[in-house]
Amino acid sequence: MEANKENLPEEYVPVVSMIQKQDSIKKGVLALKEKILVSAGDEFLSWEKEKQDKFLESTIITIAKDKELSDCFQSTEGKLSIIGAVEKAVSTGLEIGGKHAYLIPQGRNTKKKDGKGKDIWVTEIRFSIRDRGYYALLCGGKQPIFLDLRWGTVYEKDQCSVNKGNGEVIHNVCIAEDKGKFIGVWVQCRKMNSQLEVDFFSLLKINQWKKCSKTTYDDKPWDKWPEEMALQASIRHFCDKYETARELLAASIYDDESENEKDKSVIEDIETALSKQDPIEEEEKKEKPDEEKPDEKEKLDEPELF
User: Distance of alpha carbon 240 from its chain centroid, rounded?
Assistant: First the structure.
């Protein structure tokens, strides 16, 4: 007997078309609008309501149109990660798909087993910040963390000198086509008192960070964009020594080095909120007029998200 797709719970119905994807994201955002607003950053909150709505609509369309993210719509965990990406965009005020941030699919081990005893992996969204995005977060806004932030990827044939004593960096980039192997990343900041600080992260150290993430996440992003992933990880670890910068980035980025308990609680909250909008439950409510909530459908379909 063929199953009737209309009677299946939402999490088992494949999300294929762009309209379906947009609707799936909107329902999640609407279900968690209060939580998302609480986590919204100063940049987002400083905008007029019309700009906030346009930002959200643009974010939703960008995610729905990206074919590389299609697998993220095929599991409950993937759908929840999409809502989490929207929340991070709102908390940082960084535009997805532009000069500040981008999304990439990444496999995650759920630590569960299938019927054959094999690990179950799901595809989730990774919210990644570009170099300009880090600069905007840490050096922009009303309360900047640093006056300036600079970094560079170093190759074997570059001439690079890093002085941790005075915070100075001299980096002469090799312009030849063969620059040699990638050997590390330097990150330098100018603090609010104008003092310079710098650190260098070797390829050995970077590979240790990558190894820490391997048991939970796949290596595809690291294999496809090794220098860019190394740069992101280096900036994050450089900021660990500064409490305000560490707290800001902890609330803004995807933690790929360990399972974050805070992220787990967020997923549980999202899952609970979405379960309140189960299509089957909505149909049952419609059959009982005394329990029906007025204008429930209109609330889900309204274009204005907040």
Answer: 19
Burial class (CB in 10 A: 0-12, 13-18, 19+), 52: buried
Cβ within 8 Å of residue 175, ≥6 positions away: none
User: How confident is the model over 45-79, as pLDDT tens digits?
Assistant: 888 989 988 998 899 889 888 888 888 888 888 88
Instruction: Report d(CA 250, CA 130) in Å as an integer.
Output: 16
Structural domain of 221: 146-241
DSSP 78: H
Cα separation, 179 vs 88, in Å, equals 36
Residue 273 domain-assigned (yes or no): yes
Instruction: Over range 41-48, report the average pLDDT.
Output: 86
**Percent of the chain scored above 90 by pLDDT?**
25
Same domain, 232 and 272: no
Q: Count the domains in the chain.
A: 2
